[in-house]
Specification:
Blueprint: H1 7-31, H2 36-53, E1 56-62, E2 72-76, H3 82-90, E3 94-98, H4 107-113, E4 117-119, H5 126-139, E5 144-146, E6 158-159, H6 167-172, E7 175-184, H7 201-209, E8 214-220, E9 224-225, H8 231-246, E10 250-251
Parallel strand pairs: 1-8, 2-5, 2-7, 3-4, 3-5, 6-10
Antiparallel strand pairs: 7-8, 7-9
């Protein structure tokens, strides 16, 4: 049976996380006024702090994009809200998120201030706008991350990748990096407690705090040039690269929590 964290330690971690989030919100108020290099450093340092508060150890392997790399789009499998912090800690990036998040207390303000790109998930017509916006950000030399599954899973499978937002990679002639995310507990098994399946962020946080430690591995697969491919080809290539890295099956049906990305 897996050990759990004592209640007092969970409380201490929660308090540390709360103050760290508050500091992040304060930093975000001036974030966009700094040059890109400083913004990347601020983002990475804050994300690493979140992981430290939650006793999450990050391991990265594979072909990480260099700081000089231009027009980089990351496509990752989606397990948890932690994915955002994990990716920022390894490779500072902007994200595409459902518009509802922009209205969340505290986290919505933080997301807006750091340049998250929001999509209206109920409007298929919004896909064209967000693809153009992603392409413009890529052209400026910033990295953007999308979660093509459109849902979260517990990490034991990979959902079918929707191709719609990968049109931005084609438009910008970007390098598409398939990134595999995997959470493991102290026993070495898949850490299902890290998954954001429950409807409550508070319940999700409680499950994460209950773990003595979580190890997360990011596997950056070799980049795929996008210029000579269509979005469906990119989706299948990224999907299979991540499934192979995780050694999990691909499920061609939606499960888990909808993240607001339009499907096809």
């Amino acid at each position: 049976m897996q050990n759990t964290t004592p209640l007092l330690l969970q409380v201490i971690r929660s308090v540390k996380l709360l103050f760290h989030v508050i500091s992040g919100v304060m930093q975000s108020l001036i974030y966009l006024y700094f040059p890109q290099a400083i913004r990347r450093s601020m983002m990475q340092r804050w994300a690493k702090g979140v992981l430290a508060c939650l006793e999450i150890r990050l391991h990265s392997c594979g072909s990480l994009p260099t700081l000089q790399a231009q027009r980089v789009l990351l496509a990752a499998n989606h397990i948890s809200w932690l994915d955002v912090c994990v990716l920022m800690a390894a490779c500072p990036t902007r994200f595409v998120a459902k518009s509802e998040i922009s209205r969340w207390p505290v986290l919505g303000l933080l997301s807006r201030n750091v340049g998250t790109l929001f999509i209206e998930r109920a409007k298929r017509s919004d896909t064209q706008r967000i693809n153009q916006q992603i392409a413009e950000v890529l052209e400026k030399g910033e990295t953007v991350t999308v979660f093509p599954e459109g849902t979260t899973t517990d990490g034991a499978q990979l959902n079918h990748f929707h191709a719609s937002l990968l049109q931005s990679a084609v438009n910008a002639d970007a390098l598409l990096y398939p990134v595999a995310i995997q959470y493991r507990n102290t026993a070495g098994g898949i850490c299902t407690e890290a998954a954001y399946i429950d409807p409550s962020l508070i319940l999700s946080l409680q499950k994460i705090l209950s773990q003595p430690r979580i190890d997360v591995t990011l596997t950056f697969n070799p980049p795929i040039p996008s210029g000579l491919r269509n979005r469906r080809e990119l989706a299948r290539l990224a999907e299979h690269a991540i499934a192979e890295a995780l050694a999990v099956p691909i499920a061609h049906k939606e499960s888990g929590k909808f993240s607001g990305l339009p499907g096809e």
